[in-house]
């Protein structure tokens, strides 16, 4: 891991804590940006990199747990909470809503670094999954209206003859559309196309009928 392929955000109103965390992380070749309030963090332009958010619970403008709730629906870095006043309900709430860890001051450097590394690894995975989904959506937009009708019939398990009858087209035409769908969606197999349809949450309203040919 190099300092230019990730970022660690620090949000803590205590300047001494921000400085100490920054020095620790930078000694491990981690790039950091520190903020003294949740508002400053939310408003700031942030590098588009795998990241971790080290977030204090008690902040001057908003509770860290409330900030976690407010940004839950956005693409935000995994959170490592730090606090000088930890309690079980707060830690349970934080972890339940996706926090990587909940550390009570004073915590060890090893515990913090382990949590930060886990958070950045988690964010890398999420970013990769989002990128793959965006690519699949672009492929789907390349399909013609008819091909978008064919796709759910194919992944539902209908035979070519059944799917063709469903659309009122010939089996040969159905096969052409099916081949185009496989190519445009970059599906290596039917199983792969089924996985893609699941990722795109394409409704499957038909199922293979027993006795079909």
Automatic annotation (TrEMBL):
Asked if the Swiss-Prot or TrEMBL record annotates the protein with the keyword DNA-binding, the reply is yes
> GO terms for molecular function, please?
DNA binding
**Modification sites for 4-aspartylphosphate:** 56
All copies of the Response regulatory domain together span 7-120
InterPro entries, alphabetically? Answer: CheY-like_superfamily, Sig_transdc_resp-reg_C-effctor, Sig_transdc_resp-reg_receiver, Tscrpt_reg_LuxR_C, WH-like_DNA-bd_sf
List the SUPFAM superfamilies hit by this protein, alphabetically.
Answer: C-terminal effector domain of the bipartite response regulators (SSF46894), CheY-like (SSF52172)
Locate the HTH luxR-type domain: which residues? 136-201
Keywords from the named record: DNA-binding, Phosphoprotein, Transcription, Transcription regulation
Highest taxon listed in the record's lineage: Bacteria
Q: What is this protein called?
A: DNA-binding response regulator
Q: What is the lineage of its organism?
A: Bacteria, Pseudomonadati, Pseudomonadota, Alphaproteobacteria, Hyphomicrobiales
